[in-house]
Design brief:
This protein is 49% helix and 12% strand. The chain has 237 residues and is of the alpha+beta class. Among the domains are: 119 residues, no CATH class; 37 residues, no CATH class. The strands form two sheets. A four-stranded antiparallel sheet has the order 1-2-3-4, with no helix packed on it. Helix 7 crosses helix 8. It is elongated. The N and C termini lie far apart (104 Å).
């Protein structure tokens, strides 16, 4: 049972010469067949009706289901009869092929049309499509990180020309900025910039004689007294 990609939660895994992709309480062989752990250490293959019911409910759908989905799902069969290649489109999404050419090449009007058809016709197809989008972003990030590491650590070979335009040789150029970013990503605790701002000074407490909300509000008589005192002051002025 070599090349297992994901560990299972179940300990009873059948021995087989096939490549296995373990997923929760089921596993996929290299042919795309899904077998489910049904208790008593028994792994039984999922039937076609169970497969379609799982897709209709949108439960535990994996990109490993793509090939079988294209062979069994009635909507995919309709797509195929109209010249639309659903499997190639999903595979292209994962591989990062630009959307502008991908969907038209495989019979769909546009990216928006493909997305709308997929998300509204079947929960399982919607989950399959969203997983493809997630894998696409993960692969794009992985490729970018590999390119960054190459430029930062290995350097990039550049051609060097003479003033007359003849090739004189090659040189390797490294990027200190990319190396800095690479180190920060590898060990942010060690290489991340630290900004320590110390606040100095003192706090002044001023009593303005304002009410703190605990005493009773002034009565009408208090206002009459204040008005009388104000009139006396005005008369003196």
């Amino acid at each position: 049972m070599s090349d297992t990609k994901v560990a299972t939660k179940q300990s009873a895994v059948p021995s087989s010469s096939s490549k296995l992709v373990i997923h929760k309480s089921c596993y996929y062989t290299d042919t795309g067949n899904r077998k489910v752990f049904r208790g008593s250490q028994a792994w039984l293959e999922e039937s076609n009706s169970e497969f379609l019911a799982r897709f209709e409910a949108g439960e535990d759908v994996s990109v490993m289901d793509l090939e079988r989905c294209c062979a069994l799902h009635p909507l995919i069969k309709i797509y195929a009869s109209e010249g639309k290649d659903f499997e190639a489109a999903i595979t292209g999404v994962v591989e990062g092929i630009p959307y502008g050419s991908l969907f038209k090449e495989h019979g769909f009007v546009s990216w928006g049309t493909f997305r709308s058809m997929t998300e509204h016709m079947c929960p399982g197809l919607a989950m399959l499509f969203n997983q493809a989008l997630t894998l696409r972003e993960e692969l794009r990030l992985e490729r970018a990180e590999v390119a960054l590491e190459k430029r930062a650590v290995d350097g990039v070979k550049e051609e060097v020309y003479t003033q007359s335009g003849k090739l004189a040789g090659y040189r390797t150029r490294w990027s200190d900025k990319l190396l800095e970013l690479h180190l920060k990503a590898l060990d942010p605790d060690k290489y991340a910039e630290r900004q320590n701002h110390k606040v100095s000074g003192m706090v002044i407490s001023v009593n303005l004689g304002l009410r703190d909300g605990t005493e009773e509000p002034p009565s009408r008589g208090d206002f009459d007294t204040i008005d009388a005192e104000a009139e006396e002051i005005i008369a003196v002025l």
